[in-house]
Design goal:
This is ABC transporter permease. The protein is mainly α. It contains 14 helices and no strands. The chain folds into 2 domains: 57 residues, no CATH class; 253 residues, Orthogonal Bundle (ABC transporter involved in vitamin B12 uptake, BtuC), CATH 1.10.3470.
Length: 347
């Protein structure tokens, strides 16, 4: 088991290294120094305490979305709709925040609770069709992203737009604010929520019978079914939980960072969280570090166009290369395991 874990970790590290090397080649092709670009990324992400706080701020939604993806992956469900669930959760939290005056503390918890419900409700339809008709959850969840983004845009522009403002809702009441950590940054207790979720999910998967059942459904569904596990129901519940955590990510972003909902308020965090979970092999604890990596890329890229001639879109290219590299090494590993199994059967 330890050898398998070491092989998996080394494979992911090699995949990231290959992606960075390929990214360096592309940077050279656009006439910029890869060393200068990567050093600028490091300074932009960790240059001082304000930049470190900014990196952690970017890490927070990626981490929570990554945990949402891990929950789905552990149960064999590929929830690509986390972006849409994040948007619905963010809007639901904002609605509670500006429309319902409540006491401090209760107001924040109520907004986060509705964000969780909104995320779960949004993924309920793809989860039902997956359980009832065995439809592909990848297609249904990724299509639901576009509907969620456009639906929240409609709500924001035509139903709840702040008078005289841009495409945004009225600001939430201060009683719904998620407490901050530092005075000089918007970093908030959402980071703590993400860390608790990641560690809690890892403990549940490792030490509870329900977590063991979910893992069995994800890794060997036929074996789990023979063992008495209701595979379809388990998959339905796993997708609901994954959507709920995705909705929570949106609530944290609204209550802790923007204090309102606006169009494009959290672009790409859901997809970044999914990539972080894949890079972590579906491990919630490892997702803490991969989310930090992508948070550093996001925050460090803000300095790229100031100090270098490279576009910050190079970060998107590096992320795409990481996906390709991780997918390639996973395919090679799977083929190797299959060939090893065939050799064992021959003997």
């Amino acid at each position: 088991m330890m050898n398998d874990r070491l092989r998996a970790v080394s494979g992911q590290i090699i995949a990231v290294a290959v992606a960075l090397i390929m990214g360096a080649i592309i940077i050279l092709m656009v006439g910029e120094s890869p060393v200068r670009v990567f050093m600028t990324l490091l300074r932009g992400a960790f240059g001082d305490q304000a930049k470190i706080a900014g990196t952690l701020l970017q890490t927070t939604p990626i981490l929570i979305c990554g945990v949402a993806a891990c929950v789905g992956l552990r149960g064999g469900m590929f929830n690509v709709g986390i972006e849409g669930q994040l948007f619905l959760g963010g809007f639901a939290a904002a609605w509670v925040g500006f429309a319902f005056p409540l006491p401090a503390g209760i107001h924040m918890l109520a907004a986060l609770a509705l964000a969780v419900v909104a995320g779960a409700a949004w993924v309920a339809i793809p989860a039902y069709f997956r359980a009832r008709y065995n439809t592909n959850e990848v297609v249904s969840t990724i299509l639901s992203n576009y509907v969620a983004v456009l639906l929240t845009s409609y709500f924001t522009i035509f139903l709840f737009k702040r008078p005289g403002g841009w495409s945004e809702t009225p600001p939430i009441l201060p009683t719904a604010y998620l407490p901050g950590i530092f005075d000089f940054s918007r970093l908030n207790w959402g980071l703590v929520i993400g860390l608790v979720l990641a560690i809690g999910a890892a403990l549940v998967f490792r030490y509870t019978s329900w977590g063991y059942g979910v893992t069995m459904v994800g890794s060997a569904p036929k074996f789990a079914e023979y063992g008495g596990v209701n595979v379809k129901w388990q998959g339905f519940v796993v997708l609901l939980l994954s959507g709920a955590v995705g909705g929570l990510a949106g609530g944290v972003e609204t209550l802790g960072v923007h204090h309102r909902f606006m169009e494009g308020f959290a672009p790409g965090f859901g997809f970044d969280g999914l990539i972080a979970a894949l890079l972590a092999n579906g491990s919630p604890v490892a997702t803490i570090f991969t989310a930090l990596f992508f948070g550093a890329l996001r925050n460090g890229s803000l300095l790229l166009e100031v100090d270098t001639g490279a576009s910050r879109e190079i970060i998107t290219v590096i992320q795409a290369l990481i996906i390709l590299s991780v997918s390639a090494q996973a395919l090679v590993r799977r083929r190797g395991d299959s060939q090893a199994g065939e050799r064992r059967w021959k003997f």
